[in-house]
Model the fold of this input.
Amino acid sequence: FEWGEALDLKRVEEKLSSGDYKAFTVEHVDTSTGIANPVDKVGELAKDTDALYIVDSVCGVGGMPLKMDEWNIDFCLTGSQKAVGAPPGISMFCLNEKAWNVVESRKTPVADYYANLKRWKPIMDNPRGYFATPAVGMVLGMTEALRIIHEEGLEARWRRHEVLSDAFRAGLGALGLEQFPAEGSEAHTLSVPKIPESVSDSDMRGLMRIKYGVIIAGGLGKLGGKTVRVGHMGNATSNDIVATMSALEMSLMELGYEMEPGAGVGAAEEVLVTLRVEA
Done:
């Protein structure tokens, strides 16, 4: 599939209908291009196949809807550090009975001792059966992150991420900046705008960091110097969106980009005020 475009459902359906695949993987959110794949619609295609449906939702879980059972996902994995909002260092995964049966019936030995889920099954059933020294700080951080998610509520959290994403895109549009991901396929957890040809990517990001205290990431691979990546996930707030948009505006102005001062911030604020929170 082309960079910046979501997967082609027809091509996926054609491949799966051949019956030649034991498993297939789909990336929920791609952080290099800012696209979100329609994992729910892929799940409709997966329900009538024996192939395992594996979803990488490292940048999705906690920030965008993901319904494992309803969407026929067999194995889903994520990380602690992105939309979940916990410190980095913990990998999380969930698998259903179909996926576990594949683990149990595997004939080729797993090369890595610690990646062998069959070895860990008794411990997952009864954690007291393995006396070890866990990374206590990471576990406590994850516990607090999950408490925050539970307190906010998943539906409200998904809505917040959607509004923050819409607000940042509105600000970018008001500044005349295009989005790299195809329209309708944008992720809610980050934005990937194109940089004007007249502006140096490194100079702009440098100004934002040094002068305004806001750090954003540069483009990856063939998008290096052409795009930037702005995360608005986890426990990001409206204030973060306004501050980032303001830093982006001022840096662009200082580098000679013609724009109406405050246009991006104003457009973002018009969307942000639609976010309802309980007093």
